[in-house]
Amino acid sequence: MVDSQIRARGVRDERVLKAMEKIPRHLFVEPALEDQAYADTPLPIGEGQTISQPYMVALMTEAMNLKGHEKVLEIGTGSGYQTAILAELAEQVFSVERIASLAAQARKILDALKYFNVAIRVGDGTLGWKEEAPFDAIIVTAGAPHIPRPLVEQLAIGGRLVIPVGGRFTQELYRVTRLSSDPEDVKKEALGGCRFVDLIGEHGWRH
Ligand code: SAH
Question: Is residue 18 a part of any domain in this protein?
Answer without folding.
Answer: no
